[in-house]
Amino acid sequence: MTTQDGPTKAGFVALIGEPNAGKSTLLNRMVGAKVSIVTHKVQTTRARIRGVVLEGDAQIVFVDTPGLFRPRRRLDRAMVAAAWGGAADADVIVLLVEAHRGLTDGVANILNGLPQVAGERKVALAINKIDKVQAEELLGLSEKLNAEFPFAETFMISAERGHGVDDLRKWLAGEMPDSPWLYPEDQIADLPLRMIAAEMTREKLTLRLHQELPYQLTVETESWEERPDGSARIDQVIYVSRDGHKGIVLGKKGETIKAVSRAAREELEKFLERKVHLFTRVLVREKWMDDAERYSEMGLDFKDGA
Fold it and tell me: Which pLDDT band, with edges at 50, 70 and 90, does 302 fall under?
């Protein structure tokens, strides 16, 4: 429970909320690097992504869960199960609510499920995107939400701009249990680099494509070769469920997949701080959403979708 510098703390914090509430943005802001997919589309975080933050003598391990929503498909059900599972495994839970949307039906459903999952754990309320509403509205929303659930603390934040994030991080550090650090000091995430690379490509696809297609594809890193010159060759497969979707991903004369690959490669080079050779191909696998191996690749439990 000690290091050379004295006693330490370490624990897990689960970020929960509706899809698109800003959980991934907050995680990336806390960590100071991009470890979670961030897009304007909902339901983009599929696996529970851990980001590691040091604050004083405390190591905070953030679990960015998929958004909580009403599931329709097997993949949806597995994502929701993963979200509640992340909350149940954490030392502290943070519920993110969008300031301009307030107490929606989705937030109300989360509040109804919180007592069973939280138990004796402390739950903090983080009202996000505060720059979108007036101060009076924020106070009214805070009072309304705190009347619905006994939050330990309430924070007004803007995950995108960083407002209020330092206060939230410091409070969380104080709530971590006495423990040795769980990860090396220089580690920012416990995701394998292969999965981080796949997530980055999936983000670019999600941003580029529209309608339901992004939720019917997945990206896997097939191979990762370290080259003598310090660069890396990364081969990825994009699985889609229909032939028609393959054409959309490829685009006219391959323009879409080229643009996606270029954007993903540039972000990977920035993240890894070295040259990357990224090769992507698109394959049709009609029932990948019912393939247990695909769920395992995404960090989800296939049985949870039953």
Answer: very low
